Each structure stands twice: as C-alpha cells, then as structure tokens.
# Entry
Amino acid sequence: MSAIVPKIGFFVKQRLLKVLRQCHSAELRVRYLIVLNLSHGRAARETATVLGVHNTTVYRVANRFRELGVWGLLDGREDNGTTKLDERILDVLYRLVRSSPEEHGWTRPTWTREMLVKTLERQTGVCIHVATMSRALALIEARRGRPRPTVHCPWSPIAKGRRLAEIRRLLATLPRNHVAFYEDEVDIHLNPKIGLDWMVKGQQKEVVTPGKNVKRYLAGAWNVRTGMLIWVEGERKTSALFVALLHRLRATNPLAAVIHVILDNYRIHNSKITQAAMAGLSGRIRLHFLPPYCPNDNRIERYWEDLHANVTRNHTCQTMESLMVKVREYLWQRNRDRLRLNYHQAA
# Structure
C-alpha cells in the first residue's frame, strides 16, 4: 500500500466503491479513484498516469483524505460563496451572444470564449475563467451553429407590414369558389447539397459527387386549403416554366372562378412573356407579390426545405434521371399523405 494514504478498512473501502458507482460528478469520481488506487498499493506517479491527472493532484487528494477522511474528497469550493454566474451575468452574456463582436469594438466577426470573457468583464466588472465561460454558455443554451444568409427587405416596415396584412386578409376571406396558392421555384442539382449528418468518433462521411453538375428546375404551387402541391419541371428556370405552371393551375382547377397566386418578385414572374400569358387567361389568375427578400413569408419554402432534407441533400444518385425519379416519388407521396389526411378530417 502507498505510504501517502493511511490503511483503509474494509467497510470504508466498500463505502467508497458504493459512492463511486453512484457518483455523477467526474471530478469527484477521479478523487475516489485516486484513493482506491493508492490503497491497492499503486504508486502516486503510476496512479497519475493511469487516471490522466498530474501527480501533484494525487498528493493533494491523498493529503486531504488523510486529514479529513471521506469528507475531504468533496469539493471544498462549495464554501466559496455565491457563484459569479448569477442571473444578471447570464442575461448580459445572452445579449452578447445574440449580437456581433464588431458591435463591441472587435475586428473579428465571430465570437470566441476569450472574447466573451473580456467583453463580459468590460460590461459587468466580473472576470471569469474560460472554462467557466463554457459552463455559462451551456446555462444559456448557446450553441455553435451555421448562420443563415439573408437579405434585408428594402421596403419600410410599414409598407412591408401593409402588404403582408393584405395577403393574410385575402386568405382569411377567400370565397369558396376561389383558390389560393403559394408559388416558388426550386433548383435540383446533380452535385448534392452537403448537409449535417450523424457520424461516429473518428469518422467523417464522404459524399461522392458526379463531378460535372447538371440542373433541373421545378415550379410549384402549394394549395393553401388542401396542402396539395402542383408542379411542372424544366431544364431552365425561365418565364416559359412559370407560364407552364399557370396553365397547369388553370387546368387542374376548372371550377375555380379566380386562382390567386402568392409569389416573390423573381424576374420571370413579371416578364413580358408572363404578362402576355396573363392577358390570355382572362383574369382567372391573379398574382399577389410578396415584399422583396421575404422568403419566410412564402409558405412553400418550407416544402422545398423538406424536399432537400429528404431527397437531394447528401444524395448518392449518379444521374439526373435517377435523382428526378426520387424527387417525383417524394412529392407524389407527400400529396397522397395529405389527401389521406384531408379525407380523415372530412369524415
């Protein structure tokens, strides 16, 4: 037995083992393991190597155990007073993380823990360790993620709100013989979009790309009432693709007095070809344009996001034809599921 730890009785050792099995604190488990290793005759340096700690830690734990017994293994910092991470500090940290470092005088555009520590000290006068900052970030449920690129709407908030209110009013008061659709286009790439996926430690999954990219385009319209999707396909995202969708909407809704289409300001939606096609539709189709750069207000965008998540992201198709087969199967299945849901709700 190591000379730095006194002889431990059988019942004390059993108590240490029992507490060790039930302990959820990593630091406390290490201290128990240090004492148990020393009690079995393992040298201090060997114990430090096995447990991955410094040998001074082994001597410090052994001394506390020899002086105070089992109670000496508990964290003595519990009597240090109130924690620095009170509600005020966490509130300031929350607002810092939501902002940009450049707003606080830093040239770097992304936060590091060290920058957060220094900025927090400037604003509150409280200095914490970087490791404590990690714990504070966990307390406010902060995470490292990929920001979403966006463009601000050039309209004033009043003008934007007025247009969105008009569209909401249209949908809320839609006559029974009218139908409304959210419309948008989506790109399908043979070279797959790369997305997050689960991997085990030491593994980084590979997504084999065909190399030369090929594109197809869908123009789709999502029915506000039924949730069904109508779409057309094309090799180019042109006015002809959008006009083909308008004719498809008219053909699939023969009893509708007016077909309302809510869409963004992409140039093919208001080109001369589109205007000529609209004139030939005798007013049966009316276009309602969203404010510029407001994709979150176009509800079909969520549909396309699901398509990417379930089909195109990290896909392994080597030809565009096989990829488009999967795209069509997914959209058809979504429509079948929605039709079944509508049937059960009406029953």
Observations:
- The chain has three domains: 10-79, 87-139, 157-194+210-346.
- Residues 10-79 form one domain.
